Every structure is written in structure tokens, then in C-alpha cells.
Amino acid sequence: MTSRSRSLLPVQKNQRKFDDKIEVKLTVEESKEKSTEYGFRILREESGELLAKGYVVIVAADRLAGKAVQIPKEIVETLKPFCK
Description:
two-stranded antiparallel ribbon; single chain; mainly beta; 4-stranded antiparallel beta sheet; Thiol Ester Dehydrase, Chain A
């Protein structure tokens, strides 16, 4: 996780109606040895209006050992072109 101060919950900007078509934009904000932070923005497809934004941090883990592990190199290489 970065040292930037941010909320762990998505920030809702505007109400979405049930039948609204939406567009979800996902970005790779930061990739570290054991974690990757993805940012997302949810837009109303018709107008491009921002409905919500947020982020999620995914940590590579060994479930049996219960510890964070290094992200496999093939995944790191795949993500590189998408990193900011």
C-alpha cells in the first residue's frame, strides 16, 4: 500500500439508476514486489459522467504459509506496459 492517504472504500460521486449502462476503467496505479494497486473509475456510458472511483490492492500470497510472496515474473512483465 502506498503512503498516500486515501479511503479504502469507493468514493461515490453520483447516483446510478438500475438500467444505466456503465463503463468501468481499470488502471495499474503501482506495482511492487508483492502487491499491485489497481485504480478504477465507473462512468455512466451515455454521458461519461463519473459515478464512482476507488482502488484495490491485491497481494500475492502463499495460502498454506499465510504469507505474502513475490509476484511471479511473468505477471510483472505483463503488467509493466500498463503501469503509470
